[in-house]
Amino acid sequence: MGNHTAVSTFLLWGFSSFPGLQTLLFVMILFSHATILAANASVMVAIKCTHNLHTPLYFLLGGLSFSETCTTMAIIPRLLVDLLSESKTLSLSECATQMLFFFGLSCSNCFIMSAMSYDRYTAIRNPLHYATLMTPKVCFQLMTASWVVGFLVSLCIVVIIFNLSFCDSNVIQHFFCDISPVMCLACDYTLYHETAVFVFSAFVLGGSFILIMISYVFIGSVVMKVPSAKGRCKAFSTCSSHLTVVCIHYAFAGFVYLRPKDRDSVREDMLMAVAYTILTPLLNPIVYSLRNKEMQ
């Protein structure tokens, strides 16, 4: 590294540009976090305690709620501490661990939503054989596969990034160890690393989204064969909550992780990441609760 000074710790800059808003941000984010935990816990408890909700769809929804809760736990508690602390430093290993869990869980969420779309297709395409096709064992396998693949992808990304050399600046222009802000601090040539990370991100976001769209194309083809308009509306209504959550999730995630990056896009990414890490987990249980009579 020549005359460069090796970095052993990172500094999370976060919202330090707004010192007068630290307390207000703390209160707002703490309230949002408590609401996220309460809302997702309510969904999981309702699914566990209500016999009518012991179906494949709600098993997968419970898994998504659990995964969303863990995703926020990987980010928000540390953010709350940093908002009230003078020291916002963390070691390279702490940064890598946070990145591993956040992206592992985020990737898992994408695959769980793909599994949910397949579940909806199976329910509409084969209603009489639905219970035999989507058995508890199949649901468990889909959930396990989502988490395993999600964390394998995340592990690959973390290994790629933390094989880089970090020197001179150690200030991460973000409130958590996100991919782009960390890679900006590398003193190596990062084009190949950025390309590899983009490929993995596209595999998760693009691949899972394509699977979801394929399921809905088949769902649409089945529903359009239903003779009555009332029957078609009823079939589509069973998918409305899932489609709403998919649109919210992929809109934010795609904007942050798939669009071309430059050094000046960090602040935009940070603002969108606030929505992605706080707004999405908050809206998911609300959407399902409002749009599903069973959940109400």
TrEMBL record:
The keyword Transcription regulation does not apply. Its main location: membrane. The chain crosses the membrane at residues 20-45, 57-80, 100-118, 138-162, 198-223, 235-258, 270-290. The keyword Transcription does not apply. Residues 39-288 form the G-protein coupled receptors family 1 profile domain. GO terms for cellular component: plasma membrane. It is a multi-pass membrane protein. GO terms for molecular function: G protein-coupled receptor activity; olfactory receptor activity. InterPro entries: GPCR_Rhodpsn, GPCR_Rhodpsn_7TM, Olfact_rcpt. It is found in: Cell membrane. Keywords: Cell membrane, G-protein coupled receptor, Glycoprotein, Membrane, Olfaction, Receptor, Sensory transduction, Transducer, Transmembrane, Transmembrane helix. Pfam families: 7tm_4. Putative odorant or sperm cell receptor. PANTHER family: OLFACTORY RECEPTOR (PTHR26453). This is G-protein coupled receptors family 1 profile domain-containing protein. It comes from Sus scrofa. The lineage of its organism: Eukaryota, Metazoa, Chordata, Craniata, Vertebrata.
